[in-house]
Amino acid sequence: MRSSKLIRFPTLFQKHHQAIPSMSSPTPTVVIIGAGFAGMWAALSAARKREIAGRPDSSVEIILIAPEPILYIRPRLYENDVSEASAPLADLLAAAGVRYIQGLVQKITVKEKIVGYTSADGNSSTLPYDRLILASGSTLFRPEAVEGLAEYSFDADQMEGALKLDAHLKSLASQPESPARNTVVICGGGFTGAEIAAEMPRRLRGILGESVDVRVVVLERAGSLDFMGPHSSPVVKEALASLGVEILTSQTVAAIDAEGINTTSGTRIASKTVIWTAGMRASALTAQIPTERDELGRLFVTQNLQVCGVDHVYATGDTAHIAADDEGHLTLMSCQHAVNLGKSAGNNVMADLLGLPQAPYSQPYYGTCLSLGPWGALFTTGWDRKVSLVKEEGYKLKTQINTQLIYPPPPNRAAAFTAADPAQQLIA
Ligand SMILES: Cc1cc2nc3c(=O)[nH]c(=O)nc-3n(C[C@H](O)[C@H](O)[C@H](O)COP(=O)(O)OP(=O)(O)OC[C@H]3O[C@@H](n4cnc5c(N)ncnc54)[C@H](O)[C@@H]3O)c2cc1C
Ligand SMILES: *[C@@H]1O[C@H](CO)[C@@H](O)[C@H](O)[C@H]1NC(C)=O
Ligand SMILES: *[C@@H]1O[C@H](CO)[C@@H](O)[C@H](O)[C@H]1NC(C)=O
To answer: Low-confidence residues of the chain, pLDDT below 70?
Structure first.
């Protein structure tokens, strides 16, 4: 893993904070589950609020619990080289006066306000909270109906999967040439599927040799590939076609094995590399909050990010179901939304504990930046995704978003990127 150059510290946090003493007195405690964009920003935002309210670190304890003190930049996991798709968080959290606990949360008991977790050594412990922020994100949806999915498919959902895919692709070079070896099938023609597919011809040729006849196929269940809406989907299709990517629509995957894939209509494609990308579901921890969830497993929250009808529990990032604007556009499972949802949750939880007014979440501006391999990238603005930048110009913006963690700015604000406070650069 590389240095923390990906993250610029808000100057507020650069002063030295003392280690938090262990408390026997009832210090109010915020527990944040998750170290993704939402969890990290919730922690920093809660610490910021504590600081600007003039309270010492010891007045409210902020604890972030996650399996590793690392921010994995999931939007970069489709890239050829994922060595820069993560950033260490330990120093940042310590500087902000946030205590990090290494652990995987297994159980949330809202009645007793306790989370139960296992630590790296396998021991179980519990942690009481006064306010809980659930920022445990999402994972790839893997339907049980698809035979062989767990055993034979690859994905780019988490770092582990991205590394496994990379090792597998590299191992193909030492296998005898065959259609199955030279073919990659991507299941799902959505955001992730399109980004992986667009990268794949060049990636495969880099491994197998420039002269090898590689085949990259996207299987989409719907009748057409139109996840970017009527303005931008034609551009995506054109870009994929120019890269030699085939799109097969109305295809439902039935079974995957080591040598290929079968669809329900009886099509068989020989392939040693089947990549699954069929959507995301909110973290399983959401099921432990005793209330309703939406069809993606997200918890319904108020505009202050408190889980509706559940005291003292907030949900943010990919675990929250919330409208981004007054017109009712729901947030997507995206970094763009996770960053601001995280900031909002951290701020509001601290305000709640300190008896200060909360600030409702609102993020009317929406943009999408889709990476499309050697073609470049497509940047669209608005919820109807009007084409704004294409190819090289779009790619420059995508690189900026992916390396400076700015989600995604309107193009005319590009000049404002160098503003001093990263927190202010993000779209409010
Ligand atoms: C390949 C790919 C491409 C993407 N491209 C884009 C893009 O271009 N633009 C965009 O905006 N979005 C993109 N996304 C979506 C984006 O990555 C997610 O929406 C975003 O990461 C959500 O942030 P989060 O903090 O809510 O959750 P996550 O990033 O999922 O983080 C969850 C955190 O919770 C921790 N956690 C989970 N369970 C537990 C537990 N039981 N106990 C303790 N900790 C736990 C995890 O370890 C992690 O630290 C992409 C996603 C993928 C997979
Ligand atoms: C974990 O459990 C083992 C065995 O019960 C014990 O020896 C060890 O001290 C525990 N570790 C921690 C960090 O509590
Ligand atoms: C996939 O289809 C082939 C024939 O096309 C068949 O022999 C095989 O059993 C099928 N695999 C599964 C797991 O259904």
So the answer is: 1-25, 405-428
